[in-house]
Amino acid sequence: xxxxxxxxxxxxxxxxxxxxxxxxxxxxxxxxxxxxxxxxxxxxxxxxxxxxxxxxxxxxxxxxxxxxxxxxxxxxxxxxxxxxxxxxxxxxxxx
Length: 95
Description:
The chain contains 3 helices and 4 strands. With about 100 residues, the chain is an alpha/beta fold. It is globular, with a radius of gyration of 12 Å.
């Protein structure tokens, strides 16, 4: 099973949510390897081993822009990565 994981909330300053999102991304990468795609803001660098890191064309600093991209483009990006499951752990629905 291929999983896409939305980590576009990884923008400083970090709160507990960002710490949890990053920790989960790293743990999933260790377990799933190449069966995981982690989606991060364009300037974010997250070493994830064998997992694919997909840089979203957003900075993540604008909450409105991030949510709009998340709702309109993230599902399409997940399909393009052949993801069977999209996990978006922070803040918004419905995708």
